[in-house]
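Chain A, query sequence.
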Amino acid sequence: MPRELTRCQRIERSIIKTYRKTLWNPFIAAVKRYELVSEGDKIAVCISGGKDSMLLAKLMQQLQRISDFPFELVYLVMDPGYAPANRQQILDNAALLELPITVFETNIFRVAKRTDHSPCYLCARMRRGHLYSKARELGCNKIALGHHFSDVVETTVMGMFYGGQLQAMMPKLHSTNFPGMELIRPMYCIHEDDIIRWKNYNDLHFLQCACRFTEATGEGTVPGKRQEVKELLRQLRQDFPQVEQNVFKAIHSVQLDTFPGYKTKGEEHSFLEHYGETSQEM
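Chain A, predicted structure.
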């Protein structure tokens, strides 16, 4: 008689079986395409308590189990000042998913609340710095974040519409403030809708933001410009199903020769710098 699976085992099985094409395969594709994991790495998988970071942790855990080369994982949870119920929900989900988390405390919510200018931006910057610092303290050379395909596309569109610039989200990058540390985004090719389907299929309940400004627990709405872009892309998909995929492809095939201006390494450049060197017509 077959052994009955635990709930955690059923959840893990759903990743590599039921949602193999939409979760596991795109995850592996990103890890290989962008060379995100190397032998000997010690990676801090950063868990906020939301659906994205929790799935990331399970994907990385499974990758470690089947990898042809050794690497280490630390499941890092930073408490920026969560309400007790929100912190407990993270602990409960980590136990359910059998993730051996390391929790550390910060006062980020309290500090961010004191500013009248962009508290969410300040909170995000402080979170990143604390995560890098703790990961380095634990001997890690990389931190892994749960940004996904939809984040990449939305960030690109937001930059165009609201920032007046073409700027994408990189699958990995070197830290400027923490030499030797690298940030990776292994869910770069996974769509948010597929993460939601996996979550609902397994009847899982995660935090949305749990910000002390709103005291929100459970699923909520994404505020501001990002939500506007989400709605816009949702409408565009009705007539152009490939619109998001095309944006994603576009950031991988930028034709710099057709741009009147661009910026690299913080320096602005004009097409006039090289105008006349070629006679090609566009």
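Residues 214-222 have pLDDT under 50 and may be disordered. The CA atoms of residues 72 and 120 lie 31 Å apart.
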